[in-house]
Amino acid sequence: MSMNFDIKNVIETINMIKVHHLDIRTVTLALSLRDCCTTDTKTTAVKIYDKITKYASNLAKYANQLEDEFSIPIINKRIAVTPVSIVTESIENPDFVYIAKMLDKAAEEVGVDFLGGYSALVEKGCTEGDKRFMASIPEALAQTNRICSSINLATSKAGINMLGVYKTAEIIKKAAELTKDKDGLAAAKFVCFCNSVTDNPFMAGAYCGVNEPECALNIGVSGPGVVRWAVQNMPKTADLGEVANTIKKTAFKITTTGELIGRELAKRLNIPFGVVDLSLAPTPAEGDSVAGIFQAMGLSDAGAHGTTAALAMLNDAVKKGGIMASSSVGGLSGAFIPVSEDANMMEAARKGILTIDKLEAMTSVCSVGLDMIAIPGDTPTTTIAGMIADEMAIGMINKKTTAVRVIPVYGKKAGEWAKFGGLLGEAPIMEMNKADSSVFINRLGRIPAPIHSLNN
Residue 46: which CATH number? Predict the structure, then answer.
């Protein structure tokens, strides 16, 4: 039987993978732990450990097999679980750090890179269990290797929990302090959200929402290098409508690849396929940069005037291309702008072109928010809380997901460098606004939801 191949498409696919960094950024097993609740710390921890090791025992093995068979890199294998604050709510005298260590042990046992879901959902207020759990986050992150944590502080329906915002700023400071010998690495494994997404496969914010099934396989596909290459090969005279259409077509190809791998892996694991999240998540590798896409469009650097418009167009085109390719697009899907994980953004920040204020403006149109930003270790807690509150407000008003992942680096000042290693990369420590937010932040309470929340 003869088969006809389009040589141009074959070569293009090879180039996308081998030259332009197309990869499956993550295969993430979402797993409900709602049936692991007990009144005893050790009993709960054992049930959690047993369930994770049962369902995820073949995740890494089968992912590695698919990587070899299809010659498409799968960068990370991950697990996302029900928010641990919910699973542990009924425990009498809970030892949360013990549970975190058992989660970490289970993640190591099954060979995954990260486990997300050491999380709490407190957008409208905190239970007594939430308060106890949140207090454990810094130590849990400092004493584990694979655990990632998140807190949802706001939604467009509930408003912003400002007490939660302040407590979260304290968590960030404490986590960074406990790992100050590693440039605050524990804080790099923590993120806070407005309108968090229950099927997001990307860390540090992945968790399995209470509305999710028993288990599912979610895929995160990333290809900023492929998109940059496609735009760069266009004529310099191509108008922006043509550029958007090229990005959309490229996103279609990337999404199709991701769904193919995801469905095959789910089939081998004998679990349902969940979603494919097409988020352009950069790495420190040369060419694998979202900021590089802006430069291909015609901006000298990320942060130049026009960057927010370019990002808005990119984010929209990526989503449209993904929706054309699959009926299972979910998660976040769009473009991430993590400073430490994007070589071109690092450079723009080093030159002072990309500032925190400009990054905040960009978060109004990107997939997440202020991401992987190193700040001086002596930044006041109320200033960090003010950053978080601003970002929560952008998400709340615009009915979108926004987030903050900042890393205070103790003993270092603006202009020095923080180094986290691996996919987390490195970053220049950015200058902070010195104005005082303390009186406003210390009012606490809750910022009410906007009028458009009353749309029932």
Answer: 3.20.70.20
Strand 215-222 versus strand 23-31 pairing type: antiparallel
Question: DSSP letters of 167-214?
Answer: HHHHHHHHHHHHTGGGTSGGGGGEEEEES--TT--SSSS----TTS-S
- What gap in Å lies between CA 127 and CA 89, rounded to an integer? 9
Distances (CA, A) of 322 to 221, 246, 279, 292, 313: 11, 13, 10, 21, 14
Q: What is the pLDDT of residues 114-125, one digit of tens each?
A: 999 999 999 999
As a whole number of angstroms, the distance between CA 139 and CA 157 comes to: 32
Asked if residues 219 and 26 have their Cβ atoms less than 8 Å apart, the reply is yes
Would the pLDDT of 3 be above 50? no
Range of the domain at 427: 1-456
Could you tell me the CA-to-CA distances from 61 to 45, 270, 303, 331, 451 in Å, in that order? 25, 14, 41, 24, 50
pLDDT of residue 346 exceeding 70, the answer is yes
* Residues 6 or more apart whose Cβ sits within 8 Å of residue 21: 223, 224, 225, 226, 283, 285, 287, 288
Kindly write down the DSSP assignment for every residue of 124-169, as one continuous string: T---HHHHHHHHHHHHHHHT-SSEEEEEEEEETTTEEEHHHHHHHH
For residues 78 and 113, the answer to whether their CB atoms sit within 8 Å is yes
| E strand or H helix at 445 | none
What tokens were used for 135? 């207090």
Mean pLDDT, residues 86-101? 95
Rg (CA), the chain: 21
Which residues lie closer than 8 Å to 241 by C-beta, 6 or more apart? none
| Number of domains into which the chain is organized | 1
Give the sign of the dihedral formed by CA 307, CA 395, CA 259, CA 58. positive
* Helix, strand, coil percentages in the chain from 3-state DSSP, rounded to 5: 45, 20, 35
Higher pLDDT residue, 405 or 423?
Answer: 405
Provide the 8-state DSSP code for 321. Answer: H
Query: For residue 402, what is the DSSP state?
Result: E
pLDDT bin (cut points 50, 70, 90) of residue 16 is low
